[in-house]
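Run: sequence + D-xylitol-5-phosphate -> complex structure.
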Amino acid sequence: MTGGFASSGKPIHLGASIACANLARLEADLEQLCAGGIDSLHIDMMDGRFVSNFGLDFTLMETIGRIGPVGSMGEIPMDCHLMIEEPERYIDRAAAAGAEYITIHFEATRHAQKALRQIRDIGARAGIALNPATPIDCLDYIVDDIDFVTVMTVNPGAAGQRLIPAMLRKIGDVRRMLDASGHGEIDIQVDGNVSFTHIPAMVEAGASMLVGGTSSVFHKDYSIPDAIQTVRQLVTRIGQVS
Ligand code: DX5
Ligand code: ZN
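>> structure
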């Protein structure tokens, strides 16, 4: 963690959505992310069923482990976002490919509690992602099994989409619900159009894990280290005023 705290006092964790990197020069982008002090690499997996798109795969994760500074640095964790049906089928595979954070979608499995426990049993941090329309009370009986909640701030399935405004309210509702149930330790991750413009409102609402994609970490008008620094400055400023 290299800077900034959420309104909840939690340090801000900034991840990079590798689906938004220039895959033609992935090694260079990984070096830039490492130089910029990124906290994790967000790997979007899609199956063409849960979402109508195909994403990155386990071979790419293994390649990142081999080519990137990740392998040598060894401290930049990979965060595997499984946008696939019955994700429990691939949890072990994600861990074997190097994932230290694994996120499943509540809507994609009939056995969310069992799948979350499976993630923890293999030593990874367990995340549950909620599609924009999914009510937050689905968390009521699984809060003991999660390390973070991913509030999808766009409909999953593609980069470059626009924030769904109601999701800012949803972040706050999740934060209040977790705090009220004595689970202040659980982080809220936001994923989708996490832009320089939206980050202040997202962090003030209670987000502490940011997935940076086309509108921040890989913003076309910034170098990667400058983009990361811009997020850090934004968050630090929020921490100072709140
Ligand atoms: C969307 C993915 C996101 C996406 C982020 O389904 O889960 O991680 O790649 O890209 P931006 O930041 O462009 O929305
Ligand atoms: Zn994602």
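>> summary
The radius of gyration is 16 Å. Helices lie at 26-36, 58-67, 69-73, 91-96, 112-121, 166-180, 199-205, 224-241.
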